[in-house]
Amino acid sequence: MKRNKLVLLLTLFTLFSVVGLQNAQAKTITKDAETLYGKEATFQYNYDLPETKTSGDRELYLQWDQSELLKKPSAFTIQLDQENLKTIPLDASNTKKEVTVKLPKSSQKKGGHTVKILFSGVLKEGVCVDQNTSANWFTILPTSKLKVEGAVENNQATFSNFSAQFSNGKTDVVISDDASEDTVNAATIMTSKLQRASEHPNRIQLVQEKDWKKQGDHVIAFTEPKTTYNKDMKAFVPKDQSKALIQANLKNVKGKTVLAISTNKEGSLAKSMMLFTEPQLFNQLSGTELSMDQLPEITESDSADVKFKNIPLASQTLSNLAEQSAFTVYIPKKIDQEKDIQLQLKLKKSALLDVKKTELIVTINGTPFAVKLNDIQSTALTTKTIAIDPKQIDVNQPLNIQLKLNGAQSLDPCKTTNHNNWLYISNDSQFSFPQLESTETEVVKLNDFPTLFNQSDIPTIVQVPKIDQQQLIQIVDLYRASYTGYGQPKFTLAINNKVDESDDKANRILLGDLDRNPFLQKDALLKAGFIPENAEILASIDGASKNKKAIDLQILSTNKNLKSGELYKFIQQMPQVKNNATVMVKSNNEQIFSNEQQVRDDVKDDNGVKNSNQISNTALILTFVGLILLIIVIVYFITARRKKK
User: Fold this and answer.
1) Those residues with Cβ within 8 angstroms of residue 82's Cβ, 6 or more apart along the chain or in another chain
2) Once rounded to an integer, what is the mean pLDDT over residues 294-302?
3) Average pLDDT over residues 206-227
4) What's the distance, CA 593 to chain centroid?
5) How far apart are CA 546 and CA 504, in angstroms?
6) Cis link prior to 450 (omega < 30° from 0)?
7) If phi over 0 gives left and psi between -120 and 50 gives alpha, with beta otherwise, what is residue 254?
8) Membrane-spanning residues where (predicted)?
9) Cα–Cα distance for residue pair 268/266, rounded to 1 Å
10) What percentage of the chain has pLDDT greater than the value 70?
11) Regarding beta strands 430-432 and 305-307, do their DSSP bridges make them parallel or antiparallel, or are they unpaired?
12) Do the bridges between strand 289-292 and strand 246-253 make them parallel or antiparallel, or are there none, so unpaired?
């Protein structure tokens, strides 16, 4: 009897344990009811597995509601990673609106996975019936759950999605009070990356530990072998020193999502940021832990041609089922921004596509370009070329491309073959960028920023006098404004007050107070046509001539309380300065001035001297010719008179 009771207790304990484990593993696939409308619609849920699992639950429980007007053959299909698992019919007779589907073993493989629910609704059988009405709906309820052991919820940060989560939330990037130059540089690269991706960049801040107010939802911390944090930050960083060259962990600490990045070798953090800024590397990351003893090598390409297949991008087929496609192209390092970019599209169409009623719209960084399809063939690829003015599309950022096919879909419900109206875009299509023959110029100008720094063959050193909160704001604003279509600039940070003007092996960007630069003192500003007392931020550029490779840029301020984004907006004005301006000032009344007029006047003066010299020379020649002609006439008359006598 006692033995039977013991067996019973053990059995109940095991059952409850299993149930508890299963409940702990269940992930809600939607927080709110998700309603799909129309003849065809799709719901998608993503999850990530840090490592492959060989055991445990793997199932999807779905509960739904539906329109009472749905008739056969209405249905929905459950898909995992584009593999159809089960199709459930829908009609008004449905009483049990729930289903449990066993997932295949592939659902437990390491990496990202996608669950899709594809709804197809029919309100009335027959031909020529418009099914796209508000009465045609299917709702996925928030009680629906996914059970896969080890799965990480799609709203939980992983390396696959942390960038979007951190940039859209309130994020504190925290460094120790005695952080090294390399640590500050790494933290600045990360902060500027997140700010660029955010609609609210001021929510993302780089701070020293002493200034940290613990208000962010997310925290990013950097640790080198000699880094020391105080009590508050110790809970957010690894207790043990990193044993790998680069170690990164995502975890939840005290209600905050924390990304802790550490190294076992000083001076390695900034270089390791390539893992988070280079798309070909970042897109390979997954899970919540990363450990590397060696960084991958990336070969920078200066090729003038960028093929779609090398982005990499598969060939695209646009139709009424997939009307548009989006992707990003990173610009080669050295391009001539004065010449057009050529986009060569290799296209083929279906025999049914009416080219007179359809068009391809290529949108590049928000600027649309229409492509006529009247000569596209259905049997062979046809090349269409678009000339793109770099000034129209802002090449100081990656090219965000959208391809959209207009006119492929018919609103006539009797036409059921719209999906056969397709346009094929080969991945042999390519961008051809005009190459810059030489980066050497007679005069370097403010509107050459940031292009010349990113195209230069020598490194760039950013020099700051010290590290405090004001200086961190300025450094982040500079990095954010310096980002171009060919990626993150390769800047090195130097914390000191010395500027070696004779060193021609590195470009220099000087940040700090106005009194740091002896060339921009009161007398120099007066001579350049500025009122020194009203100057709040000043930029001056010099160098990069035929006899000097290095460029010197000074961005200095009299305002010791600049807010995040203020210097960024000022620097953003520099590429817009016209002509040969080398100095730009923001006054304390928010006005922007440059020495553009002075440079223009100097050019006019030079031209005036040349013109006056040309006029003098011409007059002298004409006078001389006139005298010769006069002498000839006089001699002629004298000779004629002698002959008459």
Assistant:
1) 114, 116
2) 74
3) 90
4) 30
5) 12
6) yes
7) left
8) 619-639
9) 6
10) 78
11) antiparallel
12) antiparallel
